């Protein structure tokens, strides 16, 4: 056995595990030669197992090797508790040696993380057209318990199948939270039985998300150990609520329609929110519920004569009005039995959150320090903006665009934080959707977001770009063979299985005769 | 009739035509209701027509409208000369009015440009699920006669079908040159019968390009009026030649293998090049042949003892050696009846090109001025680097990555050039392939390269980003409905035909029972 050093990364696995001991063997395997047995019965785990068994061998034609190696991976799970909430135990250990194939974990979710690692240890050799299983002993657990990814379903409509496809890619990367940004200024795609006119604000025909679809998404995500947290962004970014229900909006003539927030002074606003949230929240299983709160155009409130009167009566300034709004949200959260997540903006307006609020810091590191100084728990996302040309202002511009993955990789959530760093629970990659639809989603997100998934899972000591690069490139190829359109980071060769649905073809097939005629070749 | 003003762009066509007169009618059309008749018989044109007829109506189910409007587009072409070379006449005129559907051009290639415009005038209404044909009179021609696109087939291997798919996307954008960067340091995928060991330098099994495949690519491109120009980059970027034929390379110990150029002192080098180019050139029909010449590590020559001796004997410095190399290339070009294109680097080394050389300026605008001052004809590409995080050093960083299309759009090839500007024949978009494979090609290139295609075709007066944006966004949606993975530039709604091969699906289909079991729902 050879113990891996901090400056060596001999195992081709992403995100890199916490402790790796390489074992000097390589076990030839053939499609169909790996079975998996678990000590507990779980529908959720069995779906995960079934899925991985389909992913182990992307190529199955004329594979070289003999079928004498029958491998049974034995999964041993300590607890059959399937609860999936913040802090769930995702640790696992793997021992792969000649004749020994063991995966141990405390929960089914830890077992899933181990299955992903095991999958990546089945290495395909494109020259030999053969597979081998890498031997190693691994002890692994996440550095951060919150490893989120924001999916924006408002700026572009994503079908249920596309969201499930995205969840596949998140699962492969050991992300464990899908932050589902469901509505925004431009659209309100979520169907409501209580308030059916909300979906008058959709981008186009059938661009809606039904309750059944939400349940499928939540269930599917659970088979990857991914918590799904909805965001309903209020009181700003909320003008879409007003398409069907204009009485919900403030009235500030002269302001662009897109910047008009909810009316904070009208008790009906809160009744509406409570009714709607009470309808929607039970579709999600997570303790947390995201109520947004970013980029409120507070001057609209100041210019609404009715809100002005109310503020005068209450002896409020706009900051107090925002405080009142957040306090009402807290009451609603209690009534629907959820904990609030809010973007950090309100703090800049002088608002104080309930101490149980989880603050999502999206602006910058100085604001993060403010959040921490005030004692809140937080998650950070300002390092991880996948839509930006320059992911944040701290870095030089790379020559090549995809090398921005290195910026993410360099950005530990606790980077340059000295006080209350333990209150940073993790981070979230954000893929805001102005310029991304199903058409270009994968290629925009991947492989760059691998820099985020490894940063949030692996040890902070695993941070050398040069060492990571070949692993990340190989994993990107692996992902593309699973159907995720994740491109390369350097010249390499990654042929895909023929049957993959995104093999691109010309729109017209020239016959040999046509070629000859076009080139006026002699017959 | 309403004449369009320079500051109005009422026609939703990309690239925007030179002269547009809107006619106030809109003709409802149904799938199958448009036929096309041409006054000349041409296999090339008939393939183009057949292809467009398949593209006119991406959706065919339950289309709303009546089928009384039978439309026959009448194509009238002045000449049946199918020669496709620099300067080919691509002008056309279109008159679409109630009962009048005329496309006129001087060549079949002009007719193809008109067909693309006509295709874009068939507008699909996603809300009504109906089609209508826009009425207008159009006179159109390209501002630049060289509108090229560099496809790098060396850093990643692109299959023949992928190259044809790329040609589809170039044709839709009225590009007229595919600059095929076929080999580079990392790989030599082009098969040779004369020198079969050249393809020992391939990226992986079967990653080769055969003569038959080259012919198909040339023929297919011709059906879009796209000239295909091969680049064999010498004497730098050439170490791949040495995998099978090490005697071709200089010998400079201590230099990275990837930077070793061809040996300029060995007469066999030139015999080899002449034999190989004589074998390859006839597969291409274009008058031009690109011999590269960029980023030569000339110090390697200075450190090769054998080259040192030769230079001493010839009384050469390294610059003279480079001059000698380029002069030998000119002799070979004459023997294979081709005109040379070369990157501008040699000029920086003091080399003088043959006056017939077309110089491709890739470095910067100051070097472009040097090229022009020396009297060469040139094409520019330094504005149009699709791989870069910041396309060039002249622009501010945008917030969103895709907005880099605006940098391309702002960059007329003759921008800030006052002398000999007429010698700039046009420009070339470059998609160097370090970080792009078939998996992410489309989403990396499009819709950003639309900024280049319109810049090179349309009038320089058509340069307002705000006016262009809705057209470009709509065209990007149109492209995605034709199978090009071109994403959005702003929130919009662009559903795709179900049968499109890149509709992404999850890897596992949950049954309803499984959803209920996972969510522990009561039955």
TrEMBL record, chains A, B:
Keywords: Glycoprotein, Glycosidase, Hydrolase, Lysosome, Signal. Gene3D superfamilies: Chitobiase/beta-hexosaminidase domain 2-like, Glycosidases. It comes from the Eukaryota. Its main location: other. It catalyses: Hydrolysis of terminal non-reducing N-acetyl-D-hexosamine residues in N-acetyl-beta-D-hexosaminides. Its EC number is 3.2.1.52. It is an enzyme of class 3 (hydrolase). InterPro entries: Beta_hexosaminidase_sua/sub (IPR025705), GH (IPR017853), Glyco_hydro_20_cat (IPR015883), Hex-like_dom2 (IPR029018), HEX_eukaryotic_N (IPR029019). Residues 144-459 form the Glycoside hydrolase family 20 catalytic domain. GO terms for biological process: carbohydrate metabolic process; glycosaminoglycan metabolic process. SUPFAM superfamilies: (Trans)glycosidases, beta-N-acetylhexosaminidase-like domain. It is found in: Lysosome. Signal peptide: none annotated. Belongs to the glycosyl hydrolase 20 family. This is Beta-hexosaminidase. It comes from Dictyostelium firmibasis.
